[in-house]
Amino acid sequence: MSGVDVLILGGGIVGSSIAWALAARGVSGIRVVDLDLAGVYASSELNAGGARATWWQPVNIESCLQTLEFFRANNEEFGFRETGYLWLYDDETLFAQALRKRELQNRFGLEVEALDVAEIPERMPLIDRSLDELVGATFSPRDGLLNPNAVRGWYRKHAEALGVEFWNHHFVAGVETVRSAGSAGLVRRVDAVSVLELSHGRGGIDEYALRDILTTHNVPPESAPTACRIECATVVNCLGAWSPIFSAKVGVADVTEPVRRQISLVDVHAEDCAPGVELDSLGMIVDASGLYLHAEGAHILAGYSTPGEVSGYDFGYDGQAFFESELWPRLAHRASSFERCGHVRGWAGLYAVTPDCSGIADRVEGFANLFEAHSFTGRGVMQSYAVGQSMASLIATGRYEGVDLSPLNRSRFGDRAKWVEEELHI
Ligand SMILES: Cc1cc2nc3c(=O)[nH]c(=O)nc-3n(C[C@H](O)[C@H](O)[C@H](O)COP(=O)(O)OP(=O)(O)OC[C@H]3O[C@@H](n4cnc5c(N)ncnc54)[C@H](O)[C@@H]3O)c2cc1C
Q: With a 6 A CB cut-off, is 349 part of the ligand 1 pocket?
């Protein structure tokens, strides 16, 4: 049996940020447990690297704004480039809605511009096809792109320097809670199993074994896992798309659904680019069709959320078929430079989706010492700093300092008027 003051379940970008923020406040005895800190299947590893504050709800705008400030202040370490987001619209109603949201966004100083159709190719020479279908665009110059792994690594490195323990290769398997009549429940201990036996020579776990555990939520008994009980004063559920599995163990019916999202790297030959098109300097472009893209090293990174994707722990990447059916037609439809582009490789990761497409953060109702911060859909990287700071203040002092995350309390799902509704997008 080993004891800690704060046990953080999940060492993705959110758990790591909270761990660092707590340690920076002088909290000691913090341990982070994760099945795979390398994050082979973690959303923090598999995302698109976009960071914007141009959302629809004040709590999301504020937390992204604060996080982007932090990225800007460390731009070299995080590879943060303030290249902007360009959104194209082919629907009058959606464009009018975007212009209304722009008023709110600009009250937060985001300087979002509205472009008419003629201005689109002037601003972005890449967009040279099917312009007559478009009704307008918005451009948000303060948004940008970054390397999320560098950010997660930064949180971890600084947390470790302040004494936080990161336990790798530990699977959270169970939890013991107590509740006496009339008082809030308490998490007494968390049961983890060490899966070190599944690791190969270089210290990582075999990818297939890892995928099995993360899709079945069980460690196979033949791998002879070693059980370990962790006594803890405070527990924080930061298990991302896996958070509902833990919630169920403490009797909280979760609303989060894991949904597969696919991304491809696309090869574009410089000689195919239309005059004036320079791929290196592209920011994020979000096409009216739902496809998004940005430059990624020598390639283009492009993603698309297939409608009707069934929820589940599915990491299957559809490869060339995904590129040919979903990406290439949309890319070539909008830009002649992409006519001959080719599929390089890609991957699938999980969005943790809630009914209103906003994250869940707060103390878990009915428990005195259980907190949660997860389900940030496509926003976890760009909210990570603010969520870390605000959750650390809540855990350490009992109240929010900085961004008030209380609108993200899960009790909102019981009252539609309190939903923090966002459009599900990157
Ligand atoms: C394709 C795609 C594109 C995205 N694009 C963007 C973007 O451009 N910008 C942005 O801000 N966000 C984006 N996101 C969302 C973002 O990546 C996530 O919101 C964020 O990474 C969530 O971080 P997290 O720490 O909550 O979860 P994760 O990074 O998933 O971490 C959860 C951790 O829990 C561990 N774990 C799970 N179960 C157990 C268990 N039982 N025991 C022990 N450990 C366990 C996992 O190993 C994992 O390390 C994207 C996501 C995807 C999938």
A: yes
Question: Within a 10 A sphere around the Cβ of 52, how many other Cβ atoms?
Answer: 25
Predicted confidence (pLDDT) per residue in 105-123, tens digit = 999 999 999 999 999 999 9
Cβ(348)–Cβ(313) below 8 Å = no
State the span(s) of the chain assigned CATH 3.30.9.10.
85-141+258-353
| CB-count exposure of residue 109 (10 Å: 0-12, 13-18, 19+) | exposed
Instruction: Give yes or no for residue 374 CB within 6 A of ligand 1.
Output: yes
Verify whether ligand 1 is closer than 6 Å to residue 412 (CB atom): no
Residue 52 alpha carbon to ligand 1 centre in Å: 17
Atom 41 of ligand 1, nearest CA residue: 172
Q: Is 144 in the pocket of ligand 1 (CB under 6 A)?
A: no
| Domain 85-141+258-353, CATH | 3.30.9.10
Give pLDDT tens digits for 227-249. 899 999 999 999 999 999 999 99
For ligand 1, atom 46, name the residue with the nearest CA: 42
* Exposed/middle/buried for residue 193 (C-beta within 10 Å: 0-12, 13-18, 19+): buried
> In a 10 Å sphere around its CB, with 0-12 CB exposed, 13-18 middle and 19+ buried, how is residue 244 labelled?
buried
Q: CA-based angle 42:45:46, to the nearest 5?
A: 90
Atom nearest to 382 CA in ligand 1:
11
Q: Note the CATH number of domain 2-47+149-255+356-418.
A: 3.50.50.60
What is the 3 state secondary structure string of 328-362? HHHHHHHCHHHCCCEEEEEEEEEEEECCCCCCEEE
Low-confidence ranges of the chain (pLDDT < 50): none
Beta bridge partners of 228: 192
From 47, 143, 155, 261, mutation site for ligand 1 pocket: most ligand atoms within 8 A of C-beta: 47
CA distance 221 to 286: 46
